Amino acid sequence: MRRNWAARLRHVTIDGLRAVVLENERLRVTVVPDKGGDVVEFLHKPTDTDFVWLSPQGLRDPRDHLQGAADDVAQFVDHYEGGWQEVFPSGGAPSEYRGARLAQHGEVSGLPWECEVVSDSEEEVAVRLRVRTRRLPYAVEKVFRLRSGTMALEIEGRASNESGLPLHAMWGQHIVYGLPFLRPGARIRLPEGVTVIPHESAIGPGGRRVQAGGPWQWPVVPADGGGETDLSVVPERGAPSDIVYLTGFDEGWYEISGDIGMRVEWDATLLPYLWMWQELGASTGYPWWGRVYTVGLEPFSSMPTDGLAAAVANGTALTLNPHETKELRLRAEVLV
């Protein structure tokens, strides 16, 4: 029965793509099965605050990409609407694994997923999404669950190796924050004992926030060019672009807060890294053109953002044995 109260869900179309809206008294979460199962809205209704960053280019259907040069980076970026992506089985730059060429951020974020309703009551709503990768023999599924009266989205993920061979993978949650939630001075909290591993090189021509080398202790780290920078404070617009890898989590959680906040919890034994991507308006070329102010806090199995081959080489890639399934639970809760 369709409801306009308590927990409820609706099937809608957004820019020609199938979407499903999970809603309760406090939250509205919009998921797009036709485009990677992306979360494109995480709205706290009492304050009208959407936590996820939305790209200026908006939501685009990857199946309509008929023009432009062949490019394994553009395959992701040209259809990147912001929000929250599932990244699997490769993270970051294009990579080749055992003869399979993998594009930016792997396969599943650009594929249409099957979607079915698994719960629809006043107490809770839930949908299950499923997809198979096309270049590696994996099956991935995730269940989004929203309970009445709560401010938390619960996610149950599964990744299965459908072959008789041991295989590697990178698995991540590409969660990015933006306006109206993200503003200069917003604070990021992590558990005690976390360390900061800088990316090997700068990711943009305008320098970087964190000095190469390390690892450093969170949150105050040596700044590029001298002095120190406090990574727990979101800087003003125009600060250098950067990416660092945070690790050493006894418990997988972070909080990011301004006027209100978000707490994300995950299994740090499966995803021991948190990628911190900072694109704060300093990148004036393709693809950002100086229009982007966003911070990504992305639980990941592996590092760096150089693709699966690099993660295999440094020993951080996941191994899925023949017909093995790995399971992941996440929880994203609004803090007031």
DSSP helical segment count: 2
Q: Classify the beta-strand content into a percent band.
A: 35-45%
Structural class: mainly beta
Oligomer: single chain
Strand order of the largest sheet: 9-10-11-12-26-22-21-15
Q: Uncertain segments of ≥5 residues (pLDDT<50)?
A: none
Element order: H for helix, E for strand: EEEEEHEEEEEEEEEEEEEEEEEEEHEE
Question: What's the number of extended β-strand segments?
Answer: 26
**Gap from first CA to last CA:** 32 Å
Kindly list the characteristics that best describe this protein.
seven-stranded antiparallel β-sheet, 2 helices, 3% helix, 43% strand, globular
Verbal overview:
- With 336 residues, the protein is mainly β.
- Helix content is 3%, strand content 43%.
- The strands form 6 sheets. The protein has an 8-stranded antiparallel sheet with strand order 9-10-11-12-26-22-21-15, with no helix packed on it. Strands 6-14-24-23-20-16-17 form a 7-stranded antiparallel sheet, with no helix packed on it. A 5-stranded antiparallel sheet has the order 1-2-3-4-5, with no helix packed on it.
- The radius of gyration is 19 Å and the shape is globular.
- The model has no long low-confidence stretch (mean pLDDT 94).
Write the layout of secondary structure elements.
Layout: E1 8-14, E2 17-23, E3 27-32, E4 38-44, E5 49-50, H1 74-77, E6 84-87, E7 95-97, E8 100-102, E9 114-120, E10 124-132, E11 138-147, E12 152-161, E13 167-169, E14 172-177, E15 187-189, E16 195-198, E17 216-217, E18 220-222, E19 228-230, E20 242-247, E21 252-257, E22 261-266, E23 273-279, E24 294-300, H2 308-314, E25 318-320, E26 325-335
Antiparallel strand pairs: 1-2, 2-3, 3-4, 4-5, 6-14, 7-8, 9-10, 10-11, 11-12, 12-26, 13-25, 14-24, 15-21, 16-17, 16-20, 18-19, 20-23, 21-22, 22-26, 23-24
